[in-house]
Amino acid sequence: MESFDVLVQTGTYHLRACSVSEMDNNVYLLTCRSSGAQAVVDAADDVDTIERLVAAGTGSLDLVVTTHQHWDHHRALADLCERYAVRTAAGAEDAAALPVHPDVLVHDGDVLTVGELRLEVIGLRGHTPGSVALALRAPDSPTVLLTGDSLFPGGPGRTTSPQDFTSLMDDLEARVFAVFPDDTVVLPGHGAGTTLGAERPHLAQWRERGW
Predict the structure, then answer these.
(1) What b/e readout covers 11-48, taking b as 16+ CB neighbours within 10 angstroms?
(2) DSSP string covering 18-35, please?
(3) Taking a C-beta distance cutoff of 8 angstroms, is the pair 102, 121 a contact?
(4) Residues β-bridged to residue 6
(5) 17/25 Cα distance (integer angstroms)
(6) How far apart are CA 37 and CA 57, in angstroms?
(7) Do β-strands 111-114 and 104-106 pair in parallel, antiparallel, or remain unpaired?
């Protein structure tokens, strides 16, 4: 069996990831160490690889969260749901665009559970109307944010109007940068991660450039 990187390992959870598709989409697997429950964040593509990722943990799958409605983040969602009896969740405003209607429609401030773990839902409106990030806190490690396409190293995700850009920046500043400390780890929907501390000095620059 191929090995998958364990990005974060704490006393309460493991977080693994793989990259799929020509767009370098990240698929994340969260494993609750006490219960064995697992969640996939963004079933982006290549259901066979995602199935092997699930098997690299405990083999069970209890929840699939889709961070937003764009097609490259849910190409394997329907196939994955056929292989596992699994709950699905997504932002309420993006639900209608998904190939599988979510069992759970989430909003900013909601909490999803994976075994004994809590995933805090952060609404980040702008990249899409229902984009969400997920915050995972543990007592023995920095907080981890799974940000989908709303925050990357170097700036916010793509928006298509000045109004959407302003909305996304407002939510990022109020709901992310004003809430979480500098050591918070940011793991986006594509490519490498970063920390809030690395990005915080550039907020004004992002506002000024408009993207």
Answers:
(1) ebbbbbbbbbbeeebbbbbbbbbeeebbbbbbbbbbbe
(2) EEETTTTEEEEEEEETTT
(3) no
(4) 16
(5) 10
(6) 9
(7) unpaired
3-state DSSP assignment of residue 62? coil
- How far is residue 71's CA from residue 77's CA, in Å, rounded to a whole number? 10
The tokens describing 102, both together, are 């979510």
Name the token pair of 170: 């407002």
What's the chain's length in residues? Answer: 211
Rounded to whole angstroms, the Cα distance separating 123 from 3 reads 33
The 10s digit of each residue's pLDDT in 48-78 is 999 999 999 999 999 999 999 999 999 999 9
Beta strands in 73-190 (DSSP E): 87-91, 104-106, 111-114, 117-123, 132-138, 141-148, 151-152, 155-156, 185-188
Q: How far apart are CA 125 and CA 166, in angstroms?
A: 9
The C-alpha torsion from 179 through 202 and 129 to 135, rounded to 10°, is -30
Q: How many CB atoms lie within 10 A of CB 88?
A: 21
- Ranges of residues in the chain whose predicted pLDDT is under 50: 1
Q: pTM value? A: 0.97
Choose among 49, 39, 54, 89: nearest CA to 68: 89
Q: How far is 165 from 163, CA to CA, in rounded Å?
A: 5
